[in-house]
Amino acid sequence: MKNFIRALALIIVSIWLVGSLSAQATGSVRGTIIDAENGEAVFGATVVVRSEKKFAKTDFDGKYDLVLPAGSYEVEYQMYGYGPQKRSVTITPGKPVSLNVTFGVQTLETVEVKDRAANNTEASMLALQRKSATVSDGISQEAIKKSPDSSAGDVVRRVTGITLIGGKYVFVRGLGERYSNTLLNDSIIPSTEPDKRVVPLDIFPAGLIKNIRVIKTFSPEDIGEFSGGLVKIETKEYPDQFEMSLGIGVARNMNTTGRKFLTFDGGDFFGRATTEQKLPSIISGLPNEIPYEPGSRFGGLPPALVNITPIFFNGQLTPSEEKGSYDKNFNFSVGNTIKTTESGQRLGVLLGVTRSEEFRFREENSKRYSPINPISTLVKDTTILGPVQQQNASLYNKEVNFGSNLNLSYEFTKGQQISLKNLYTVSSDTNVRQASGVNYIDNFQFLANTNTFTSRQLMNNTLGGDHALQFGSMARPHKLEWNLGYSVANRDEPNVTQDVWRRSDPPGSVATPYLRLGNNPDGSRFFSESKDTVRQLNVKYEIPFEQWAGLKSSFKFGGLTMEREKDFRFREFGIKYNSGIGTSLADYWPAPSELTYNPTQFIATGSNANAAKTFSERATEPNAYDAIQKLNASFGQVDMPLMPKLRFIGGVRYEDSYQKVKTFKLRDSSNITNLDYGCKVENEDVRVALVNSNICTQNNNGIGEIRTQDKLPSANFVWEFQKDMNLRWSYTQTITRPDLRELSPFGFTPFFGADRVFGNANLRRTYIHNYDIRWEYYLTALDYIGVGAFYKQMSDPIEMIGRPVAGSISAQFTYTNASQAYIRGIEFDYRKDFLDKFRFETNFFFIKSRVDVLSWNTYALGKLGLLDANNKAFSYDPTNLSRALQGQSEFVYNLKLDYFLTSKKNQSIGAYYNYFGNRIYAVGANGTPDAIERGVGLTDIVYTYKHDDRLDFKAAAKNITDTRFKVYQVSELTGKEELFLSYRLGVTFSVAATYKF
């Protein structure tokens, strides 16, 4: 920590000194030059002040910066192929003057640019959307600052067509998180989640983000796994001059702050797991092939050695009680542009650091059911729900988010720039879950405590370059873009402890004590780690040309090569009683677990040669997988006006992908039975015959393997049929591949009674046909109306469905390829200022979808027992053969109303409202209906104040109605809504201030 602070201080002082030393009794004129035809930056334009015999040229962003003595000047702007322009300017010492120029026949409204790229304000983001080759929406840094949001997840839910699940997983146009991709600074990034393909957006602090764009139609230069949309996150870049800012904030959650709060020692200052939480070296130091369990005549470890192991574990099992703290956040950034030579070479630097702590308590009620049908499970109308379990849980969670970015960019000559962007984030949760409930299968009441610490780390390094290649005297240069990316995502969940007590249901009396469960998961310790690494090289080359009518066009081609490696390990350790349970008061609740599982309980004595309890590892199921993916892609794309105002952007992308996942037990890491090949065959009858002959296993020997080669065409048209109006339409073909985890046929449960999800080694990739049309009307630089419609047809969509299970309170799910699906929707976006005092923004969408899971014939044959037990269809038990897509709301909308308190518009009060309609929370299985999350709305109030371009102040009230989230299932026979899950998040009040030095 001390070394980090010293390094931070050294960088800050260096940037400040350079900025101070370079300040003279001069000023400057700076700005951006754009092309009116396509809205793109004009590179290589000359800016001349003849009286001073000084000139400058624009860079890739169309930006220029010309240092001048104090005085009045005439500035000339010249570029071959464009008419020259002149501007008058007065220079004041130490103060830059901004002059932005539009080249071309059409005059656009001026967009003030305050950062390196012209897309960090609301106006510039809208201008970028207007000239985009594809259908897209976004949110700028300026809008992020005004909102009450603290992470990218909170921010992106305000974009048209976006819903957010669990505060972190993006659904674009109703398609689940597995159908969306995230790019960070144009680099593919891995996921910190072992059981999901998507990157959780809550790991990106809002303070490090410049903008977020959601691309909704595919172009060949983008990756082909493009289903719902592509989320592009861009971190802040260096400023044009020295800037330093400091921000602090505090918040109070009415459910948590000042109230009882349970927690334990978890994580360091940054949110990373500590050495004390890790698996003890007495275990981790042994080869994976040696299971950590007492030996016998068949092998194993010395029992005395195994049984002393609890001494080496973290001793805290019972959480400590304290008062819920206030939320706290801090952010700091410093940056500068340093001119290294008089001829224009420059170095851009930006360093940003942010850290926050959030404390939340919530009460959660849940129930699970099994179907009761006196007629037949095939007759759904007569199904009623019988309870399997119910739980009332108290959840205490401390979340720590740390983020830092260091961006460097060096322009060694005009048109030749390289950059290095580095991002490191840590997001951790220290969670205590205390539940009471009833197991209706075995008829007992239980108390279950689970302590979980989870740390998610993402490191992304991207080295890239932008190069202009001028050939001859042509007006526009060729452009070469490249980036080399290296990203690592780690997820560490060390020492998850569980304790369970039970008593009969109904108990003999209210005083009947709870006694230790005495078997799994009581007394268990769970350790898991996953590491996901991505290496990539992406190259794009653009050749400008003029089409037959002399209109500016370009041809772009390039390629991508990517290698991804992902591995996952978990180990679980448990307790076995060697004598009857209840012989000691330590076995009764509320005796603390430190007493019940005291290390002395595992040591043999003279009176008890076997010790009271035995410690050992549980390793009966696969607990590891290794996965790889290799992707090689190439594309060709043309951007060409077919006639004035009608633009075509299209081409084709070719992707060659190979995925392989190997699932196994750690004890079999080098065992001859740990096969490295699968038995995947397309014909189901042949596969069943191989399984019945013991040549293959039902899970394909634990091997998931897919090789695909796809040609993906794309055609986008943009027609500016009237001034400030665009009509867009497109047809594209895209794919979605199974996630590496989805190909791994293992599953585990995070707490007592939780659902279990298993992978499927036999999955195939999904092919998608996409149709889009949108009308856009750009009223002003800030005002906008947009209406769009889309349709998607999917072959072999990947869906999560139920598996048959009996005698367990935990439901089971797996992934499978449904036969087909479609989704269609309408989107609307409106933004407008009124009476110079109000700004109103709204967006909403309507979506309908349907997925056909299994055919009726196959389902009926399985139910009647006429399929072989090893047939894949026999192992699936979905309740509904056709339904809407999981997680898709038919109606979602956002409302935002700002009232400006002053004529300068530097003070405002804003109301934000986000609503999502009913959606499937969990897919029905085994005859139970789908669990439906009831649609709710969240209301936030925000006050913002900006003083002298230095001080920004914000006060917010989030979730002011304390919305209740509820999930339910409907009993078909009675029509009654039965509780599945419900909770409230509480109202949160916050204040924050940022000061620019």
TrEMBL record:
Q: Which UniProt keywords apply?
A: Cell outer membrane, Membrane, Receptor, Signal, TonB box
**Residues of the signal sequence?**
1-25
Please report the stretch or stretches of sequence annotated as the TonB-dependent receptor-like beta-barrel domain.
497-960
State a GO cellular component annotated for this protein: cell outer membrane
The source's superkingdom equals Bacteria
Chain segments annotated as transmembrane: none
Places the protein is found = Cell outer membrane
Q: Which residues form the TonB-dependent receptor plug domain?
A: 132-217
Please state the protein's primary subcellular location: membrane
Please name the source species: Leptospira ognonensis
Which Pfam families would you find in this protein's record? CarboxypepD_reg (PF13620), Plug (PF07715), TonB_dep_Rec_b-barrel (PF00593)
> This protein is called what?
TonB-dependent receptor
Q: Which family does it belong to?
A: Belongs to the TonB-dependent receptor family.
